[in-house]
Write a structure and sequence with these properties.
The structure is a homodimer of 347-residue chains. Chain A is of the alpha/beta class and 347 residues long. In chain A, the strands form two sheets. In chain A, strands 2-1-3-4-5 form a five-stranded parallel beta sheet, with helices on both faces. In chain A, strands 7-6-8-9-10 form a five-stranded parallel beta sheet, with helices on both faces. The mean pLDDT of chain A is 95. Chain A is built from 15 helices and ten strands. At the A-B interface, helix 3, strand 2, helix 4, helix 11 and strand 7 of A face helix 3, strand 2, helix 4, helix 11 and strand 7 of B.
Chain lengths: 347, 347
């Protein structure tokens, strides 16, 4: 897992190169077919990448995005109309039977189907009309890391190729360095985790583009540390779950500069008053100085508005490192989570 | 909270009467305007009702359903194209500023807008072209209960009025009695909760139509018991979070008869092997006999396939009662959750 976390900058360079041309072709085809809707089908880590894409396509490309409910396809034999939809199935292994079945059914029903996978020669790739292959290299760790960032990057390349997404092209170029800088936080994070060894549970917060990061870090903590980690969007958190907060509760907050920052600032002031134990992943000093454990990222040299759109791909790196080192500190083996295998087959 | 849980059968009768005619008119308008997409905007408990509707409209009416990302509307000033969409804003109080803003923007952009609320004279109702008012009566408890089931019922009435939904009309008539029977479990549940007084955390599982029930019960446990309760769809649970399970971990499973039952049976056998402490809400004897704490619902006298579609509205009742009595048993006041107010204003 650690090797694959560290490999992410190189993996991302490969992904950006591999998907550039197919993404342009697929975007052209979307325009030609008058695609008016995106439907995403995925499970687990890939589903967190789908949540990222949900914000990206709606924001950049003004395309409504529906997350498929694969059970309806697989168990109920039912599917919504999809004639003007781009249906994207995401699975790093390309073997998720339910995601394969969604794509196969969507294709029968006249949707434009795309497989997004790390394995070119896989059932998922064969089920779709088009393939975006991440080429992140083989992933051996059960807890997916480099395939998550590669998948998010491939989705960002596709968004940049679709109408409205042009502004994303420039910051994509420097994305691997941005992730590299985030990975340099490794020694600090390896020390920081000690404080949380005996935490029985934690909450992970992020809003809008960072909501996917909150979900993905929570999943890593569950898989490798057996820590109940519940992710919320900051807004939903206030509609109820905020009642959970008490003195000492670990709360991780992902907050990139952008329109969500004032909300994060207000939230952190409140968490501070409640004496929660906060882990803040941010570039913003006013947030970091309020944190119990600040994790400081560098501000990239790209336009601030587009920097935020790609921030999830850099911000998850400290989350991955945190989960890995916390597992070790708890005497667990992050490379062999109990009860899990690399490919999960759900129907 | 307890009064409002018990009031649900009467509240549902009012809802079914109130929404019948407007739902028919709105469905007719959807056909006239050639609506091809549903976008739902909601927070908290209302968002769990939206998750129920996501399955319902996609399954019964073959309409793709997107859950709106209100932050994009409110903080980023961006919105996807919505010209052939029915945009439904859900808020029991009708005051959620972000949901109001989504509807106002959607209306400007030519979408067909619908406010689903318990308060006829509210900002949400004023922002939309059409209103479905639940008429569940005033809700005083901070933790929403009767407005959740009323909202789900109103959405089911709308689904039954839209093309493809006709089969739902008959079982809707007997829904209030079905909920009444579920509420008769109160004395048993008041005793059952003692076992879970010292649980530091729990997991709540449900699949497809019951996924919303899992989310809603988890939210009630968080709000009233300050118990970290993480909901998963059974399928997503296997893609990682299953690693959390260990001897004695409380796992609540909602499993109505239907295509998901074999999956639930397999899951329960596995949880049994792991010696998890299972609370099973079901009608199925083979599942209930495997449970640490079985909560047995009656099978309604309606066709099995449509019975499942409405089951979430009955199955949540034991979940609400469980949260209420567990809070009392933990020495907490479920009517006054710390840090929350009845109307949450997020932007």
């Amino acid at each position: 897992m650690l090797d694959e976390i560290r490999e992410q900058p190189q993996a991302l360079r490969r992904t950006l190169t591999s998907v550039a041309e197919p993404a342009r072709r697929i975007a052209g085809e979307c325009t030609a077919r008058n695609i008016r809707l995106v439907i995403l089908a995925a499970r687990g880590t890939s589903d967190n990448a789908a949540v990222y894409a949900q914000y990206l396509f709606q924001y950049m490309n003004r395309l409504p995005v529906a997350l498929a409910t694969p059970s309806l396809f697989t168990l109920y034999g039912a599917a919504p109309r999809m004639d003007d939809a781009l249906v994207i199935g995401i699975s790093q292994s390309g073997e998720a039977p339910d995601v394969v079945q969604v794509l196969a059914r969507a294709r029968q029903r006249g949707a434009f189907t795309l497989a997004l996978t790390n394995v070119r020669d896989s059932p998922l790739a064969r089920s779709a009309e088009e393939v975006l292959a991440c080429d992140a290299g083989p992933e051996y760790s059960v807890a997916a890391t480099k395939t998550y960032t590669a998948t998010c990057a491939a989705l960002a390349v596709l968004a940049s190729a679709l109408p409205g997404g042009e502004r994303l092209a420039a910051p994509l170029v420097s994305l691997p360095e941005r992730v590299e800088e985030a990975i340099h936080l490794e020694p600090q994070i390896a020390r920081d985790v000690a404080r949380y060894v005996h935490a029985p549970e934690c909450i992970v917060l992020g809003r809008a583009f960072q909501y996917s990061t909150a979900r993905e870090m929570a999943l890593k903590l569950e898989e490798t540390c057996y820590l109940i980690a519940t992710p919320f969007s900051t807004a939903d958190f206030r509609h109820g779950p905020a009642a959970l907060v008490e003195r000492g509760l670990p709360v991780v907050v992902f907050a990139a500069p952008g329109p969500c920052l004032p909300d994060a600032r207000e939230l952190l002031a409140w968490l501070h008053d409640q004496r929660a134990d906060t882990v803040v992943v941010s570039e913003d000093e006013s947030l970091l100085e309020r944190a119990t454990t600040p994790i400081r990222l560098h501000t990239p040299e790209v336009a601030a508005d587009v920097a935020e759109l790609l921030s999830p791909i850099a911000y998850i790196a400290p989350g991955q490192l945190f989960a890995h080192y916390l597992a070790l500190e708890r005497g667990l083996d992050p490379d062999h989570p109990r009860g899990l295998t690399k490919v999960t087959r759900t129907r």
